Amino acid sequence: MTSIRGMVLAVSAAISLAAVSACKTGNAQQRDTARARKGVQPKTQVASLSGNTSAESAAVLPAGALSTQGTGEWWMPGRDYSGSRYSTLNDINTSNVANLKVATTFSTGVLHGHEGQPLVVGSTMYVVTPYPNLLYAIDLTKPGGVLRWVYTPPTSARAVGIACCDIINRGAVYADGKIVYSTLDAQTVAVNAATGKEVWRVRVGDINIGETITGAPLVVKGKVIVGNSGAELGVRGYVVALDLGSGKQVWKAYSTGPDADVLIGPEFKPFYPRDRGTDLGVKTWTKDQWKLGGGTVWGWISYDPETNSLYYATANPGVWNPDLRPGDNKWSITLFSRDPDNGHAKWAYQFVKHDAWDYDEIMENILVDMPFNGQQRKLLIHPGRTGFVYTFDRTTGELLNAEKFQPTNWALRVDTKTGEHIEDPTKRTHEGVVTRDICPSSTGAKDQQPSAFSLRTGLLYIPAHNVCMDYEGVEANYIAGTPYLGASVKMFPGPGGYRGELVAWDPIHAKPVCSVKEDLPLWSGVLATAGDVVFYGTMDGWFRAIDAHTCAQLWSFKTGSGIIGNPIAYKGPDGKEYIAVYSGVGGWMGAVAFPDVSIDDPYTALGVAGAVPDIKQKTGMGGMLYVFTL
Amino acid sequence: MAYRSWNAQGGEGVIMHPLTRLVTFFAALGGLVACQTDMPPLAAAGATSESPFLIGPQPGTDRPIARPVNPYAGNTAVLADGRRLFNWYNCSGCHGDHGGGGMGPSLRDSLWYYGGDDAAIFASITEGRQHGMPAWGVKIPQDQRWRIVTYIKSMRTPNEQDPPR
Fold first, then answer.
1. Closest approach of chain B CAs to the CA of A153, in angstroms?
2. d(CA B144, CA A389)
3. Which CATH architecture has domain B43-59+66-154?
4. CB-closest option in B9, B12, B102 to A591
């Protein structure tokens, strides 16, 4: 387990970007990139990380061009462009975390599922709630934290019934004095971080055709990258880049349709022949089915400043019944690398061709530079809904390894030479047939809840599920703005007597190092810190700290509701380290806890009720921020 | 944008202009509202003082208001059709395969945000509700709306069609 402990880890350029000292004026974004290029950390022990220059002094809130995050702050969903969810803070560590206590709490006033994470910029914390998507600014200099202002976006309540899987929001991003996030009714807003005044608000999608936005944006080189949600309602997926200053659209890249719409051109060089060809976003569908083809982008976005590449993956193809859409259904369930300047695709890898299970792969793509078989490689690690953790060379799209991290029987293995999954044909679903005992279920071996990567241990900490299903394709009828599903799904616990597991995964040797089994599926994200502590929460409300090396539990605290949010670490104005997380059950699986969901129908909530019917006895609704310190 | 319409076997779709599709859709499903002959008495939706849709408490009974009556109340012969329509119009997509809830609230339980008697459920389907329930009165013929109401009211009763297993 400790064999890789002493390995030489180079810090990804993306992480080092977050660590260089503040620059205050002019064309800050370009300068960031230039600094990042120069500032790639030496290929020495991870201790080099602790040499990061603290930028807290520059980060006392915001007027103007504050462009670089301090080590004690949390400006973007995954903390840094690489999506590591790794904090270099280490005041809270394995020797003292047992003494962690509640420092303060804050009720968001919203009962539904609290996915996502707060931000900390200077001495202010920003909290985005589930619909109605309020934005709270909390002054951390005052004892217990005092509300500085709240921004209420004008939204349409009709969006509530359009969102497939609770009315959640996965958070905001801070850049250039603005807090930027999206609303459930598919608008993106930029709010002045100091005053709470709206800077701009633009409509990105249309709820009347089933589009919502639940994902957190990322800001790259002055552009806000936003993706849509709604692949269960016949929505056609896309990513847009909005100008950070004005909200005006700069480019839009669809996930289905002709190459001109997908922004595929001469620079597109997929690694595997299976992903090459022209207009595959049209040719791999029957007739015009690609127009309702899903492939939305509601998950996590990463960025590598050194190669100027965006990374994200797309959702399931539209209509879950595979017999209604013969063909590979590109570019659903596909990992894209794009140039953020113009959106043009660099490479793509379709995880699952012609999906038959809703193995929607919008999961996090964590960018790290590590030695792989004796050679320093730029890696992209993608823990998949499919049950496999995939490790790619992110410059080429070559799949280096892919191994199972939870019970998985739809595919036996992945051939890294061809990029193909070797499937069990008896687990492929069809219309009018109940295909039984498929593992994992549509919710996957993990869902949107993001993993964390520790730069000290070189391990990925994956919040996993062990749930299986019976799946039947049924007829589907497209009515704009309503579900376009075509499947009847019933889920149930997987083998082994547990439904959730926190897995510490070695991406180089493609195997687990240690794990913690949990009763309920894990729907919270994970935080790893330089104190060698890993934090996560459970759907019945326990917030836990474990040892990053051994997975031994060091501390646990019961919050008021189930945890489906993602913990963060920050340094308060008082110089102390704090850990913050939302409590508030919900999301796709957690919705079973709601009073208006009935468990005597196991098909309820797209089939999850059968997997977690007991959750009603184990937790209840409630939205609360918890902050802990020593 | 063209819309795809699937036939009952779920096979090859036909691309139609949205308007063409809408008309075909209604025709195929038993006719437009105006064609119904067995229509129960019903005030126009949105009527003011005579509105038949009573959701709130009723302050006295000085002026009794006529409420729409479900022509199929207790009629088990329409339950299979109600179940079919519940799926056909994607009610199941939001409210669960057997009405247990999900995107929309459970229809199996005793909690009704906008009233749970036949007339109130009919009103919710017809007019829509503010948190995303579409106003199906513009799409589903009245007779079919009553069949759906009748099916919903049969949930958790011995008469429930295709109960969850």
1. 17
2. 48
3. Orthogonal Bundle (1.10)
4. B102
